Amino acid sequence: MNITVKQLNRFGLLVTGPFFGVLLWLMLAQVSVTLPGSAHPSAPEGPSALAPESTQALIGSLDTAKQTAIQTAQSIKRTVQLYTKTNESMNAIAKTTAAQAGRPALIYDRRITRKIGAPSKTIQSGNITAQLFAIHAQNFNGYALKVKLKSPEAMRMVLGKDKLGGAETTLAAVRRYKAIAGVNAGGFADSGSKRYPLGTTMVNGEYAGSFEPTRKDLFFVGLNDELKLVGGKFASQAQLDRLQPKFGASFVPVLMKNRVIQPIPAKWQTSPSRAPRTVIGNYKDNQLLFLVVDGYNENGGSGATLFEMQLLLSRFGVIDGYNLDGGGSSSLVFDGRIVNHPSDGQLRLLPTHFLFFD
C-alpha cells in the first residue's frame, strides 16, 4: 500500500479534529480542566472515580449553558411579544390618528351640506364626489351641484366642438367627453356663424385667443393647478398668470368675495331683474358649488334676481361667488340627463362648458 505524507496529514486532521474542536470550546467557555498528577493513573476504583473533576466542570458548564440558553429564549420570546403588542398599538394609534385627521373635514362637509338640504343623487369615485340638490325658494326653483375634486382629472373646461368659435349644448359636450356632469360656463358674442366666448378664456393652461384686461365689469373665474377657484378682475396678464389658472371663462358680475356680498352694477340689477341663473362658488375647503335656477324666459318675469343669488350663496356658506351666463344659457346635466328646465325649451348651443369626470 503506497500512502503518501499528504494522505497521512489528512488522516491526522480527521482524527484530531474533534479533539481540537472540544478543546477550543472549553477555552471559549472558560472551563478549567485539571489533568491528573500521574501520566499513567491506576485503574479507577469506586463510583466516584467515574466522574473526575474535569468531567464535573464540563457538566457544570453545560448546565450553565443550558440555563443561559433557556433564559435567552425566554427573553427573546418576551421581546417578540412586546414587539408584537407595540406594533399592534402603533397600528391602532395610526388608524385613530388618520380618522381624527379627517374628522374636521367631515364635520365641515356635513355642516355645509345640511344648509343645502339632502342630496337627491350622489356620484362618488376616487376622482370626485358630486352631489345634486333641489332648491325651492319663494320666487323660484333651482338646483345645486356640490363638487369635491380629488384629482386634477376631475374637472375641465372645454370649448364648443373643441375650437374657438364653435358651439354645442352642454349635453353634447358631456356625451362627447363621457363626463358625469356639465354646467354652462362664460358668456359669448356672435360673429356671423361663429359663437365666441367673452373676455379672457383659458383652456388646458393656455389662452383661447388672448388675454383681455377687465372691462365693463367682466371678471375671469376658473381653477388653478391646486384645484382652487381663482377669480376677479385683472388689469394685466401678469396679474392673472401669478394665480396659475388652468382653465376659466369670463362674465359679469362678481357676487361675493371673502364672504362679503359685492355691489351689483346698476345695469345688471334690471337687465333683466329676474332670469334663469347659473352661479359658481367655492368653500374654504375648495369644494365647489354651482347654482342653476329655472325661469320661463329672459324677459324678467321669472327666475331669480342677482341679489337673491347672493343671499343663497351667503346662506349656503360660500366664500366667493361669480355669476355665469344665464337666461337660455343656463344648463345643468347630471348623470346623463338634463336636470334644469331651459327657458328656450331646449339647451342652447354654447362656446364654453365646465365638465366633471369620475
UniProtKB/TrEMBL annotation:
<dbReference type="GO" id="GO:0016798">
    <property type="term" value="F:hydrolase activity, acting on glycosyl bonds"/>
</dbReference>
<keyword id="KW-1133">Transmembrane helix</keyword>
<keyword id="KW-0326">Glycosidase</keyword>
<feature type="domain" description="Phosphodiester glycosidase">
    <location>
        <begin position="178"/>
        <end position="357"/>
    </location>
</feature>
<feature type="transmembrane region" description="Helical">
    <location>
        <begin position="12"/>
        <end position="33"/>
    </location>
</feature>
<protein>
    <submittedName>
        <fullName>Phosphodiester glycosidase family protein</fullName>
    </submittedName>
</protein>
<keyword id="KW-0812">Transmembrane</keyword>
<keyword id="KW-0472">Membrane</keyword>
<keyword id="KW-0378">Hydrolase</keyword>
<dbReference type="InterPro" id="IPR018711">
    <property type="entry name" value="NAGPA"/>
</dbReference>
<dbReference type="Pfam" id="PF09992">
    <property type="entry name" value="NAGPA"/>
</dbReference>
